[in-house]
């Protein structure tokens, strides 16, 4: 007998579906929060982290939240809840924007502009659909007092597609002035227009509810002026930016500032009746304050400097951290507990959970944002680092508190289940549903608190505590109210401790703890000398010498003009800029100058190529003070490196490789049948063992010291994709390719990629290697490999091996090189390369591997051994002890073969294959007797450094 479904109360069903929609729609927000924290934690291994984090906030967190809550507020303001059948469309739009944002990031990081364009178009189209949907809902609803707010939600949504177009064009990396113009227009439309308008329109109605007071009487009339002024201002600012018209851009920014000022006036006058309580109110108030402050800063900078990329860079921190994140998290702290419901007591407890330590967190955040937003020269680098860590922790605290709040709400709803089950009548069912869920209330009458319906009245009761009075979960018993003053003092002390910790780590940068008597005798002048320095493509700092009045503080603005290489600036006193990507700018506070100070680029190899700077203190007459001539200071780097300990000095060349080391198989497979060979070379900077007990900071293709081997035939085409997952510029040069080097061999910056296509037109064994300066350093670090193009009619043999010889030059890691892979106890020594004495000479990337994992052959077999001398500086005289070669092939031609003219068959022989750096060939031989045959570089100094191995021959 069929079972009849039990009728459900319509009100209860409606609330259930409403909560389900919010939970489903809000999932991407949680995903983006988790992803953002992961990127912050692993930023040093992720390319383009600054761009990535900014767009994870703006497109991921902010845009998704706007789509969810603008829909929620539209329904509340219009008293017009959409039917459940339309929810899938809303979910489709929200998840579509999430997917589009992910693809946009993939396109940017992979440098696939077509994907960036498609993703930006998808995002813009979905926001347009969202705006049209809101307008449709507005037209179908009865006239509502706050219909104007919904109209501005829709207008704001139409701003984002325009900004998305600007962003897609920015991905083309246009040169200035267009890059700067598009960047300002992009920010004006997306942040000031899309986000600013949506937030302002929402707060006009949400703010009185949050602070639990009546709406300002002039709010409606002022908002009719403020919002159009803000919209017009953002559009005018964008137009001025695109046209390069500074006065027009300033006019637009000023108009926007007036609009924000009117919104702020409404919020301030509302808040004066009752101050905000807890995190939610003060975080939102701080966010609007930062919006106003940032627009003021933009006005000043554009007026002073014009439309420059550096201007927009200075606005990133206050815009993203100050305005966007604080406003979002503050609003979420209020909205989430209210929409999750569970009854008044549960909502109060949930609000209390998410607002724990609220004023303390707001205090810490805003002090950290203010300090970190200062020009870098005004804050020592270690202080900036400590402040950023404290601020990030304060931001991240929202996530566990949000989870705690959700648990309280879930527990409260579960306690209501028995009550709902016991309810039989429609009236009681409705009451239970109202008790189990809360609808966000909106002010319905000027001069009265919000209480338009049952849900609104429950929010009114549930949020009187404002998040500052703690309530035990599931009870109506208030706990002791936290003292706001204590939280403020605690927040100030926390930030002061962070500042103190930064100074303690590097006191020199703050002019404290000067070490010698000469320094202590110098009085600080209180003045600051500011210098702009350029890192050039020719591996030089400009200027390379800086004269500073003794006692002045030196602040250097480093601009990386090198289009492909990462650089940094490190001073001997510990001050550093950190790694600076191509086109980026950083500031470093070198501290109070009392004596000569040397600076350099710490990227391996760059210092030895001349990337040094000397800071010279001078007296009032311009005469040097302190130590004598330092003009040759940079050259001293090489001599200092000569004295450094070689980590390979004590290597036991009879020892086996470490247990974790994987011996490289020297056996060669025949050339494949296909005529088009596709390969990806991914640049990775990893720790790799090169001798027993010696693990170096290796720069590699595909993670191995010595890249993969390519093999083909004459006429084959090779399509190689180079991707740079390293921390500096790299490239690849295929000697097997007869192509112009201008494009295919260019250096690419971290995060970039390029396609290298060539046709093999000549046979031989060819070297490939990184060709980024200094090439010797990159090759010695592991960035080399072999391409074998078989000669026509190459005879078959029984066994075929490949041995690529190279040498490396090692030193201990310098103290100013903290970014080494875990386990690396050695780095390439450019000074050692210049001196010409290798630390190790190896076959296939390890000094002892083939002494323990021997090559093998039988006495009745013919063996071919391909040999390549990769360098960077040493050649090879390849010899097999006890063996003779009857075939020698070198640099594309046979020097000897069993059928060589003028030599009786089988009587000609050779003892060594002589190769200069970058030359290669092969030898063929047979072994008449069983035994162990040693192969060596017959330049015995190189053999004794590791260039040897063994062949085990059996019957």
Write up what this structure looks like.
It catalyses: nitric oxide + Fe(III)-[cytochrome c] + H2O = Fe(II)-[cytochrome c] + nitrite + 2 H(+). This is Copper-containing nitrite reductase. Helix content is 45%, strand content 18%. It is α+β, with helices and mostly antiparallel strands. The chain has three domains: 10-487, Cytochrome c oxidase-like, subunit I domain (Cytochrome C Oxidase, Chain A, Up-down Bundle); 510-634, Cupredoxins -  blue copper proteins (Immunoglobulin-like); 676-954, Sandwich (Immunoglobulin-like). Helix 6 packs antiparallel against helix 7 and helix 13 packs antiparallel against helix 17 (484-505). It is elongated.
């Amino acid at each position: 007998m069929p079972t009849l479904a039990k009728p459900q109360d319509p009100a209860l069903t409606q609330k259930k579906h409403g909560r389900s929609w919010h939970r489903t729609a809000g999932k991407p927000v949680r995903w983006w929060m988790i992803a953002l924290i992961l990127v912050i934690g692993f930023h040093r291994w992720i390319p383009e982290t600054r761009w990535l984090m900014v767009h994870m906030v703006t497109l991921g967190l902010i845009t998704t939240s706007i789509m969810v809550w603008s829909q929620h507020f539209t329904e509340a303001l219009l008293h017009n809840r959409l039917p459940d059948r339309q929810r899938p469309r809303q979910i489709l739009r929200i998840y579509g924007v999430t997917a589009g944002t992910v693809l946009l990031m993939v396109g940017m990081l992979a440098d696939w502009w077509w994907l960036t364009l498609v993703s930006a178009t998808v995002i813009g189209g979905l926001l347009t659909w969202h705006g049209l949907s809101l307008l449709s809902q507005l037209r179908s609803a009865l006239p509502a007092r706050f219909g104007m707010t919904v109209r501005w939600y829709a207008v704001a949504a139409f701003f984002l597609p325009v900004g998305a177009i600007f962003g897609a064009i920015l991905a083309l990396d246009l040169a200035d002035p267009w890059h700067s113009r598009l960047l300002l227009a992009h920010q004006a439309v997306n942040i000031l227009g899309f986000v600013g308008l949506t937030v302002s329109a929402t707060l006009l109605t949400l703010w009185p509810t949050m602070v639990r007071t009546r709406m300002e009487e002039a709010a409606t009339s002022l908002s009719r002026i403020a919002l159009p002024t803000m919209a017009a201002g953002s559009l005018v600012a964008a137009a001025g930016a695109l046209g390069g018209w500074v006065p027009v851009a300033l006019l637009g920014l000023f108009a926007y500032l007036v609009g924000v000022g009117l919104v702020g006036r409404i919020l301030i006058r509302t808040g004066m009746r009752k101050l905000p309580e807890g995190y939610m109110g003060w975080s939102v108030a701080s966010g609007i304050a930062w919006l106003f402050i940032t627009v003021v800063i933009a006005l000043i900078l554009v007026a002073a400097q014009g439309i420059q990329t550096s201007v927009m860079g200075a606005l990133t921190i206050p815009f993203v951290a100050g305005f966007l994140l604080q406003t979002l998290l503050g609003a979420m702290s209020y909205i989430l507990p209210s929409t999750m419901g569970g009854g008044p007591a549960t909502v109060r407890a949930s609000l209390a959970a998410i607002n724990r330590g609220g004023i303390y967190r707001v205090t810490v955040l805003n002090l950290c944002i203010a300090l970190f937003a200062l020009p870098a020269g005004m804050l020592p680098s270690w202080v900036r680092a400590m402040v950023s860590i404290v601020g990030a922790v304060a931001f991240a605290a929202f996530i566990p508190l949000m989870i705690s709040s959700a648990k309280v709400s879930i527990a409260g709803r579960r306690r209501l289940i028995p009550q709902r089950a016991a309810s039989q009548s429609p009236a009681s069912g409705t009451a239970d549903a109202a008790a189990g869920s809360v609808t966000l209330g909106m002010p319905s009458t000027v001069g009265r608190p919000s209480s338009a319906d049952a849900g609104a009245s429950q929010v009114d009761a549930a949020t009187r505590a404002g998040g500052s009075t703690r309530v035990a979960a599931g009870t109506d018993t208030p706990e002791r109210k936290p003292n706001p003053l204590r939280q403020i003092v605690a927040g100030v002390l926390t930030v002061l401790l962070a500042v103190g910790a930064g100074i303690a780590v590097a006191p020199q940068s703050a002019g404290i703890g000067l070490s010698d008597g000469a320094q202590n005798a110098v009085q600080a002048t209180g003045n600051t000398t500011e210098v702009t320095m350029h890192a050039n493509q020719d591996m030089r700092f400009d200027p390379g010498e800086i004269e500073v009045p003794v006692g002045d503080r030196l602040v250097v603005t480093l601009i990386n003009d090198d289009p492909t290489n990462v650089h940094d600036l490190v001073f001997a006193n510990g001050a550093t800029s950190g790694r600076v990507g191509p086109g980026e700018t950083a500031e470093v506070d070198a501290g109070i100058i009392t004596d000569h100070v040397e600076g350099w680029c710490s990227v391996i190899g760059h210092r030895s190529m001349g990337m040094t700077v000397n800071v010279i203190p001078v007296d009032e007459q311009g005469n040097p003070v302190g130590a004598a001539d330092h003009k040759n200071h940079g050259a001293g780097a090489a001599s200092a490196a000569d004295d450094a300990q070689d980590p390979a000095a004590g290597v036991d060349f009879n020892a086996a490789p470490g247990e974790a080391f994987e011996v490289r198989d020297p056996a060669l497979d025949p050339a494949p049948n296909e005529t088009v060979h596709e390969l990806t070379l991914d640049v990775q900077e990893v720790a790799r063992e090169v001798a027993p007990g010696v693990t170096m900071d290796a720069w590699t293709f595909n993670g191995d010291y010595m890249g993969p081997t390519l093999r083909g035939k004459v006429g084959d085409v090779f399509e190689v994709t180079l991707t740079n997952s390293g921390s500096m510029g790299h490239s690849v040069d295929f000697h097997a390719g007869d192509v112009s080097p201008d494009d295919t061999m260019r250096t690419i910056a971290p995060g970039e990629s390029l396609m290298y296509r060539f046709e093999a037109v000549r046979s031989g064994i060819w070297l490939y290697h990184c060709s980024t300066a200094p090439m010797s350093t990159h090759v010695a670090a592991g960035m080399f490999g072999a391409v074998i193009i078989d000669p026509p009619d190459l005879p078959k043999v029984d066994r075929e091996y490949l041995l690529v010889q190279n040498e490396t030059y090692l030193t201990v890691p310098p103290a100013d090189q903290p970014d080494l892979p875990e386990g690396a106890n050695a780095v390439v020594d450019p000074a050692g390369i210049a001196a010409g004495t290798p630390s190790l000479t190896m076959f296939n990337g390890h000094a002892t591997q083939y002494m323990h994992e021997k090559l093998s052959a039988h006495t009745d077999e013919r063996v071919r051994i391909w040999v390549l001398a990769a360098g960077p500086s040493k050649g090879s005289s390849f010899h097999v002890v006890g063996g003779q070669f009857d075939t020698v092939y070198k640099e594309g031609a046979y020097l000897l073969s069993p059928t060589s003219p003028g030599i009786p068959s089988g009587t000609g022989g050779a003892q060594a294959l002589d190769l200069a750096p970058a030359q290669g060939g092969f030898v063929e031989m047979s072994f008449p007797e069983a035994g162990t045959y040693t192969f060596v570089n017959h330049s015995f100094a190189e053999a004794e450094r590791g260039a040897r191995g063994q062949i085990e021959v059996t019957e």
